Structures are given as C-alpha cells and as structure tokens.
Amino acid sequence: MDDVDQVFDYNAPAQDTHKLLRSFLSPPLDSNLQKSVHEFLGPDATPTPIQSLALEHLLTPRDKGYRQVLLASETGSGKSLAYLLPVLQHLKRTELAEPRHPRAGLVSPRALVLAPTHELARQLAYFAKQLVHHAKLRVQTASRPNVSSLDNRRRVSASKMSDAFEEAVEGEFEVRPGASGPRFDVDVLVGTPSRLLEMSRGHGWRLAGDKEVERERGRPWRVGRPEMDLHDVEWVVIDEADVLLNRDFVDDTRALLADAATARGYVVPAEGVLDYPFHMLLTSATIPLTQTAAFAARHPRLKRLVSPGVHRLPKTLKVEFAQYGSGSKMQDVERRLRELWEDDALAGRPPSRVVVFTNARTAAHALGAFLEEKKIPVVTVAGWGDNDRAHGSNKHLAGFIGAAPSPTQDEGDATTPRVLVSTAVLARGLDFTPDVSTVFLYDAPRTAADFLHRAGRTARGGREGRVVVFERGEGRGTGNAAVVRQSIAALANRRQVVRR
Length: 500
Known about the structure:
Blueprint (H helix, E strand, L loop, with lengths): L13 E2 L15 H11 L7 H10 L9 E5 L6 H16 L12 E2 L2 E4 L3 H14 L7 E3 L16 H12 L5 E4 L2 E5 L2 E4 L1 H9 L9 H7 L17 E4 L2 H4 L5 H14 L15 E6 L4 H10 L4 E4 L10 E8 L4 H18 L6 E5 L3 H13 L4 E4 L37 E4 L13 E6 L6 H8 L9 E8 L5 H16 L4 E2 L1
Parallel strand pairs: 1-18, 2-10, 2-11, 3-7, 4-8, 4-9, 5-8, 9-10, 12-17, 13-15, 13-16, 14-15, 16-17
Antiparallel strand pairs: 6-7
Keywords: Hydrolase
Protein name: P-loop containing nucleoside triphosphate hydrolase protein
C-alpha cells in the first residue's frame, strides 16, 4: 500500500458542520421529499454531516448559473441521499418551467447519474425511487440487461422500439405518446458511463470503422439506432468520482459529458476550463492528489464540500490481522468463518454475513469453490456473468446489500449464503446491510483507496464493524505486511483540517 500523504489531498479543508441543519424537517426541503425521507429512513432520521452540507449549499445556491460541486465524505456517510435530494427538488420545481425537446422514441432524461457498476446503479435508482414516491418523478436504470432483448443492430421504427423497450424492462419505462410520436419521459436515468454512451451513440458504436471487425464480418459494421436524447439534461452526477475519473472509466465519463454538452450547444474545448451547460455534481470517499490537479486546470470554480471524516477510518471499525504461513490461506479463511459463527451461536445471534475481497478474479472463484466444497454456501461475484449478475437485477446479492430482494430461505437455514466473495467490482459505493458486520481482506489491498473502500462496506452509518486483513506471518511477503499495517494506522489517525 502507498503512503496516504502522497495519495490523498489532506489540504482540502473540511467544512465545520456544527451550525448546519440538524433536521430534514427544516426548510427549504419540500414537504413531499421530507415525507419520503422519513418513510424511507424512519421518523427520527437526521442528516449526516455531508447531507447537512449538501442541504445548506445546494438547496439554497449562493451563486448563479450552472454549478460544479464535489461532495467528499467517508464511506457509509449517506452521500447518495446528499445529492439526490437537491437534484430531485430542482427537477420537481422546474418540471413545467423548463421546455423539453425529446426526439421520437428516445429516452429524454433531465438528470444523469453515473455509477461504476450495474449493481450500484440499480441501488441508486432504488434509493431515488423511494424519495420520489410523493413527488411523482420518474427514475429509471440503464443497466445493460434491461435492454438485452432490444435489437439495436438494425434500424426499427419508433413504435417497434417502444414495444421492445416495454417488453425488455417489464414496464420499467413508462411510455408516454407525444406530439412527435412515442417517447420516453424520464426525469432521472442511472447507469454506467459505458451503457449510457451506448444509449446515446447507438449499440456497437465503438466498432464503427474497425477494419479488423469489418474484415471478419465481410461487410461494414452498422451502428444501432441511438436510444437516448441528451438535449434536456440539466444535471449530471458522477458517483464515485475517484473511480469514474481514473484509468478504466475516465474516457467514457468524459465522452458522455462532452456528448451532453454538445447536445446542449456547448463546444467542448480540448484544453482549458470546462464550463458545462448543466449542473455537475461529483461524489467521492477520497480526494486523490492527481484529481485535485486536474480539477484546478479544468474545473477551477469547482466547489468542494468536504466532511471532517474523509480519508479516515470510522471509530466504530476494528481492524484485525490474521497471519498465515506456508499452509492454505483458504483453510485459514474457513477456520475464521467457523470461529466467527461459533461466537455468534454462543451469543445467541444468527450467523453473521461476511464479505471477502480478493484482488484477482481467479482467486475469488477459487475461494468460492473451496468454501462450497466445505459446505459453506457462498455467492461469488468477480466479473460479468457471475451468479446471474447479467440478469438485470440485484437478486444475486440478496441478503447482503440494501434494495436487494430478501433471501427466500429462512434466515436460520443452513443453505442461506452467509458469505459473499468478490473482487473490487463490489467494493465501491454499495450500501451493504447491517448484517454484514465483518469484511475479510483475502489479499492485501494494492492502494490506500482500495482499503478505504473495501473496509467501508462495514461499520456504516455509525454501526460497529470489523475488518480482518490476512497477511503472511513468515517467509516472503512479511515486509509488505508491515507496510500495509503502517498505511492502515495512518488512515486511522490522520485527520482532515477543518475550516472554522
């Protein structure tokens, strides 16, 4: 793991939240949203620090024009609600004032929410739908499986496209006939950058002009008809911005932002300041120094709302180290699981749910198969297609994350999976249930950010949690274990400067 002082921007001062709103009932939050919040979170729910900051600065904007804001807060602090409430309130208040220009047969969202995985996109859509129960806005997901039955490789009429969409998503999209033909009225569309790009540019757009593909097919590649129009986009939310603006995701994220800006008449410069013609919100559990430099160059007026707990481990999280020698690490995992469940039984508790993170997909599948052989029911999610991941819902994560269907088996049934094995694919943003009290790190995280996100799947919202780090106790690799311990200790003790 890396030196946290060389990775995270601790010079970005956190805001003092002591004088901010302490209740969702306080104006200026609309009454319908207030009602939904308390139905969703409970009648005694109060805003977390990052939610108070968002309500203070985003519901009552102090500057004119389109806004660029970063919400930075520790995992489990409620960032999703922090940005959803201001976005939904603005959409509701302006739904009749803002003219819309949808094209026939196309999805025409007013807000895009970008997430790194389909699982997170579905969960965010679920959260948003709970909040608009009384406000009556339309929230949909753009998960790839939702449109798997729609043949985008050939051009179809608007009416046929409407029928295909309705059949594909089982009524998720509400089709409303407009003056220019069938179209899809959607206020908020949630999805991964790659899926949203495919909707705006057409299925297979990446293969257009690829000579090798055309040579194999024996004919030119034909891009599918676009499914989405971006003229009406007023908000773009980049959830988990430290992921979506880094490495594998940044090109698609920037391309989608450029497409939305172009659709609204803005010429995106190759260099210099970016002033998008829509509100842009970014959320993150970390502020990498590399992104700070990029923000300074491209988004100099970006406002940063930073929680005092960012870049730190929660006080309710306990970190343990489990040493293994030359024997099987998988056997050590099995042993620790059984010890944990024995403790639960002695205390009269149901067996805890445990999430195990590996660095490699092969390790995840090998560990999952090993535990199954030992009669421990397990769910393995390490990439596309695992455990029905491609079927367009979060059913494969039932019992582990919020907004997923509960297991059909009895909670005490020995066949009910109590272990989820995954790579980093499920380490970002997902809100795991309180039943997930323990996280096993089968492999040492490669970076401090990886550790923060994986550890952050437990001890959420002030609850207690535990992370068990498996490290080599003898032989090669013990030096790396010492570095990991030092980095974790720094995360536990390093504090963000608070602006008073």
